[in-house]
């Protein structure tokens, strides 16, 4: 066929596309399974059921039961098997339903995955990715709601990720799989249904750096995962009161990106750390300590922390909400850092983020 | 311990071609473990070796006999009582001794010590000091072989103590369910640290219990290297043939305490002496002497050769450099190229 005329291409900006956190995760898994035959997904209900949070729905049909491998309820055995398979050249993605259940595999994660490289003098890297749900907000009570990622962030030898945005949900898995060492990915349960536009130009992301999600000049709200939407909502609220809040999304909980955190605080001179873990011995405690060590003279106010109440997570909605970091608490803490006592009417209940109750264990 | 219900490993249809040279090689391999560890005791007493150290003396027939059934392609996962497994696997005495001295020439660059010997090149995956902790790992190595259709065996050693851990039961279920090419070798030395089998297991017939997972399971006289070798060959053949995991309960005994710190107050001297009459090393030497396959002169030459080898290992360890402290944080994570923000 001969062209009879030439057409001038009209450049059109590629469109953003609507998706959810769950779908973004699934797309990342699908891409990983398609591009690397060493990759397989293993965990409880990941196959026939489609993943207890629906993340792996449809993958069994596409990739078959060898690569979408339903495991018995044996967290220690299948996590350990993932570690062994990684040692033998595979690239396993192991899904644990919730961080609470991961405690049954903590021996394998800590005593094997995190230590084999060092104990063997560099001979045995463990290229495994372990994904799990974390966090509260869905009235699942104390054994399905805790935020223990800070514990894992304590452990040398592990990399700990907390994707909070659609882009990170979609693009953090690939670099996690490329990492020669064990990577833990914490997915906050309240994020799965989060929907929005995945930017058309979204592409590979790193797993070394924190990100400034909103620029500001008066106070840094430092957070990650499921607390990011709350921190952004708090920043909106604060803007209404004339306070310019910068929001830093940690993204990688280990190793912590001291530079991005420090640069932000050097600009704003105030910090509020928002962390759904318990305050005692929390990741927020670590960040606060680092700011004191490294940025004491940049700080115009004591570092504030907004953490979960020191209580096993209660079921009752009112109590659960009270136990968790909420927008109004973040706003109040930010006000304190600027020496501006919070006006009594400043807490607008209507501005609290709705608590996600859908998308839980089915 | 007595039981009659457990199936015993059947005699192989064709006995391995056990030439005199092979029998002598088995003796040499067992004697190497014995003499190496006896030297370790001296070095430990002289504070040249520190930390926890668990000796294998009395159990040598298991490591040596099982290793006969494995090839260089197979994998071995071991416990904290692994000097014998490592030596039988071919890890040089020099590399092991240097490791115990904490030297950079050690098989784990001095970061593991007695309990964490590794040799990736020989597919020797430790060196696991959490009781039962190596079992899921071994299942994973086997799973990778299954998924990539490599016909290899993963052999996992563990003790009777591990039978009380969930790790054993989770792994046995997983391995049998998925038909993994796994050879489970339980070294039943009758004690979980200081607790006798009958005081830590509701049912002391371990092979019987393993059979409950649908695995081929045999009990084997772990003091007889020929019995061990026969059973291990049969089991490894079964694994290679794709019939799933096999379980061997090696009935054995450790002549020394659980660790160098253990005063061994929980066992009768008489019991120990009774088992020493079944010493696997001297038992084999006696059989070879009676068959005129081992003269006193040959024995003496063998002892000299091993002493020279171990002397050399100790001397090399003494001379070897220590890892510089500047390298302390090496091998916590792999070196990675910077990634985009």
Automatic annotation (TrEMBL), chain A:
User: Which Pfam families does UniProt cross-reference here?
Assistant: Transket_pyr, Transketolase_C
Q: Does the keyword Lipid metabolism apply?
A: no
A GO molecular function annotation here is: oxidoreductase activity
Cofactor requirements of the protein: thiamine diphosphate
- In the UniProt record, does the keyword Phosphoprotein occur? no
Domain Transketolase-like pyrimidine-binding, first and last residues per copy: 19-194
Region of interest (Disordered), ranges: 338-362
InterPro entries documented for this protein: THDP-binding (IPR029061), Transketo_C/PFOR_II (IPR009014), Transketolase-like_Pyr-bd (IPR005475), Transketolase_C (IPR033248)
* Keyword tags: Oxidoreductase, Pyruvate, Thiamine pyrophosphate
Indicate, by first and last residue, each region the UniProt record lists as having compositional bias (Basic and acidic residues).
Answer: 348-362
Report the protein name in the record: Pyruvate dehydrogenase subunit beta
From TrEMBL, chain B:
Q: Name the Gene3D superfamilies on file.
A: 3.40.50.970
- Please tell me which top-level EC class this enzyme sits in: oxidoreductase
One GO biological process this protein is involved in is: pyruvate decarboxylation to acetyl-CoA
* Matching InterPro entries: DH_E1, PDH_E1_Alpha_Subunit, Pyrv_DH_E1_asu_subgrp-y, THDP-binding
Which reaction does this enzyme catalyse, per its entry?
A: N(6)-[(R)-lipoyl]-L-lysyl-[protein] + pyruvate + H(+) = N(6)-[(R)-S(8)-acetyldihydrolipoyl]-L-lysyl-[protein] + CO2
| Assembly with partners or alone | Heterodimer of an alpha and a beta chain.
Protein name, please?
Pyruvate dehydrogenase E1 component subunit alpha
Organism of origin is: Streptomyces roseochromogenus subsp. oscitans DS 12.976
């Amino acid at each position: 066929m001969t062209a009879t005329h030439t057409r001038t291409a009209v450049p059109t900006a590629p469109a953003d596309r609507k998706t959810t956190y769950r779908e973004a995760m699934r797309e990342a898994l699908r891409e990983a399974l398609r591009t690397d035959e060493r990759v397989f997904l293993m965990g409880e209900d990941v196959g026939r059921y489609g993943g207890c949070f629906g993340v792996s729905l449809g993958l069994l049909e596409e990739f078959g039961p060898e690569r979408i491998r339903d495991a018995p309820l044996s967290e220690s055995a299948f996590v350990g098997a993932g570690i062994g398979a990684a040692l033998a050249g595979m690239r396993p993605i192991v899904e644990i339903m919730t961080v609470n259940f991961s405690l049954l595999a903590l021996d394998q994660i800590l005593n094997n995955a995190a230590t084999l490289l060092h104990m063997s003098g560099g001979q045995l890297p463990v290229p495994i990715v372990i994904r799990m749900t974390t966090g509260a907000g869905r009235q699942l009570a104390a054994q399905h709601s805790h935020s223990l990622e800070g514990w894992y962030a304590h452990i040398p030898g592990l990399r700990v990720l907390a994707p909070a945005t659609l882009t990170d949900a979609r693009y953090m898995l690939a670099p996690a799989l490329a990492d020669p060492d064990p990577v833990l990915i914490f997915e906050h349960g309240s994020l799965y249904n989060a929907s929005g536009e995945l930017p058309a130009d979204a592409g590979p992301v790193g797993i070394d750096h924190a990100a400034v999600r909103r620029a500001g000049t008066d106070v840094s709200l430092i957070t990650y995962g499921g607390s990011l939407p709350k921190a952004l909502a708090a920043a909106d609220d604060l803007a209404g009161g004339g306070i310019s809040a910068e929001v830093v999304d940690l993204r990688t909980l280990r190793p912590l990106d001291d530079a991005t955190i420090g640069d932000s605080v050097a600009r704003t001179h105030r910090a509020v750390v928002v962390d759904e873990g318990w305050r005692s011995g929390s990741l927020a405690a670590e960040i606060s300590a680092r700011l004191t060590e490294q940025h004491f003279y940049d700080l115009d106010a004591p570092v504030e922390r907004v953490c979960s109440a020191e209580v096993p997570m209660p079921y009752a909605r009112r109590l659960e909400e009270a136990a968790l970091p909420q927008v109004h608490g973040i706003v109040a803490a930010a006000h304190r850092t600027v020496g501006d006592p919070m006006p009594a009417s400043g807490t607008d209940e209507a501005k609290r983020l709705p608590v996600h109750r859908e998308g839980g264990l089915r | 311990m007595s039981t009659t219900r457990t199936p015993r490993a059947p005699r192989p249809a064709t006995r391995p071609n056990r030439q005199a040279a092979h029998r002598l090689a088995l003796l040499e391999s067992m004697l190497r473990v014995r003499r190496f560890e006896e030297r370790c005791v001296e070095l430990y007493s002289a504070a040249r070796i520190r930390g926890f150290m668990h000796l294998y003396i009395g159990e040598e027939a298991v490591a040596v006999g099982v290793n006969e059934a494995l090839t260089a392609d197979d994998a071995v996962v071991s416990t904290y009582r692994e000097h014998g497994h490592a030596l039988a696997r071919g890890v040089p005495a020099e590399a092991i001794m240097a490791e115990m001295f904490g030297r950079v020439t050690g098989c784990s660059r001095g970061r593991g010590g007695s309990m964490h010997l590794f040799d990736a090149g020989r597919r020797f995956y430790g060196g696991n000091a959490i009781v039962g902790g190596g079992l899921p790992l071994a299942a994973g190595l086997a799973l990778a072989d299954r998924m990539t259709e490599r016909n290899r065996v993963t052999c996992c050693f563990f003790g009777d103590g591990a039978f009380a851990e969930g790790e054993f039961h989770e792994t046995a279920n997983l391995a049998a369910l998925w038909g993994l090419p796994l050879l489970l070798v339980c070294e039943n030395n009758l004690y979980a640290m200081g607790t006798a089998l009958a005081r830590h297991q509701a049912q002391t017939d371990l092979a019987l219990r393993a059979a409950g997972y649908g695995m081929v399971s045999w009990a084997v006289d772990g003091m007889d290297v020929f019995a061990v070798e026969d059973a291990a060959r049969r089991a490894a053949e079964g694994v290679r043939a794709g019939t799933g995991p096999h379980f061997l309960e090696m009935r054995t005994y450790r002549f020394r305490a659980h660790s160098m710190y253990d005063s061994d107050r929980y066992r009768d001297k008489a019991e120990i002496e009774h088992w020493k009459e079944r010493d696997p090393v001297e038992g084999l030497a006696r059989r070879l002497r009676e068959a005129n396959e081992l003269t006193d002169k040959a024995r003496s030459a063998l002892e000299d050769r091993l002493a020279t080898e171990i002397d050399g290992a100790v001397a090399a360890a003494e001379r070897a450099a220590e890892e510089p402290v500047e390298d302390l944080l090496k091998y916590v994570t792999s070196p990675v190229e910077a990634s985009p923000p």
